[in-house]
Amino acid sequence: MTTVSTSGFYDSATFNMNTLQKQVDKLQTEIATGNQYASAADNPTATAQMRSLQLQDAIGTADTQNANTASTSLSLADSTLSEVTSTIQQIQTLAQQAASSTLTDTQRASIGTQVGQLYTNLTNLANTQDTNGNPLFGGNASGPAYTLDASGNATYAGSATANTVSLGAGLSVTTGVTGPQVFNFSVGGTATNLLSVVQNLATSLQGGTAGTTPQAAAQAALNQLSAGLTQATTAQTLIGARENWVTTTTNVQSKLTTQRATEESNLGSTDISSAVSQMQQTMVALQAAQASFVKVSGMSLFSMLQ
């Protein structure tokens, strides 16, 4: 017969119950926080990997925000350019009418008034602001993209380049186009500005230009308007390509975010169902140990038979 001392029994039983209780506490913490490790000391390697992934998450979040900002600006530029091209097409239709020999100069003057109204629309579109109040077609400038003098002549007041934002991993996108990229073009080797073409057409149709007839002015404007429409359409195509680029990079960023989330989950996240199951089993063992301790400690003798 081997005799077990009272103190030995108590020490062993207490140790086992404390060990089980610590396991229960740890599992409860894992379930409550969703993390397997309470501190870096629990698993230094996994913790370091987690911190690296979290840093990448923070950078990815900033890149996504930049992409959203770029997408908003590009979308606004796209819709504004649609209005620009629509306005140019309306002016083309009026110019074609005015170029016809069947109209009188009085009728052409009336058309000139309409063209003048469309010129105002164009200058307003040219000075469209983005969501932050900055000129959409003014590049990096903060004031209006175009200024108008007392005679209504438009002059570009923006910068030579548009804003560019980072999309992460060395990628970037220019978030708009400048006024000259939309309204400046060349006809027969001569630099031309659409806003000037439209303003001069409105003035000429109303008989305000010496040395040319309203009909001749309308005929001359047709080629310029056609070139101007091509220029604006090209700018819109460029904007569309950039929108597609932002969408592509955003999709890539989304996939990377998902991959990191999976890695983080594998590294440190708690498998809730597994943890709950383990905790239940451990609690059963703890309760059994406690019950056994209470029962045995109530006996007068502590002994075991070989």
**Structural class category:** mainly alpha
Q: What are the low-pLDDT stretches, counting only 5+ consecutive residues below 50?
A: 300-306
Global morphology: rod-shaped
What is the CATH superfamily label of the largest domain?
f41 fragment of flagellin, N-terminal domain
Number of domains: 2
Question: Count the helices. How many?
Answer: 7
- Fill in the CATH topology of the largest domain: f41 fragment of flagellin, N-terminal domain
Residue-averaged pLDDT = 85
Rounded to the nearest angstrom, the distance between the terminal CA atoms is 6 Å
**Would you list the SSEs in sequence order as H and E?**
EHHHEEEEHEEHHHE
Rg, nearest Å: 38 Å
The CATH architecture assignment of the largest domain turns out to be Up-down Bundle
Number of strands: 8
Major sheet, described briefly?
2 strands, antiparallel
* Portion in beta strands: 5-15%
Proportion in helices: 55-70%
CATH class of the largest domain: Mainly Alpha
Strand sequence of the main sheet, in spatial order? 1-8
Descriptive notes:
- This protein is 67% helix and 9% strand.
- With 306 residues, the chain is mainly alpha-helical.
- The protein is rod-shaped, with a radius of gyration of 38 Å.
- The protein has two domains: 2-25 and 271-304; 54-263, Up-down Bundle (f41 fragment of flagellin, N-terminal domain), CATH 1.20.1330.
- A hairpin with a 2-residue loop joins strand 4 and strand 5.
- It has helices spanning 6-33, 44-99, 105-126, 179-183, 194-205, 214-268, 272-297, and strands spanning 2-3, 146-148, 154-156, 164-168, 171-174, 184-187, 190-193, 303-304.
- Strands 1-8 form a two-stranded antiparallel ribbon.
- The protein has seven helices and eight strands; from the N terminus they run E-H-H-H-E-E-E-E-H-E-E-H-H-H-E.
- Helix 1 packs antiparallel against helix 7 and helix 2 (44-99) packs antiparallel against helix 3.
- The relative contact order is 0.16.
- The model is unreliable at 300-306 (pLDDT under 50).
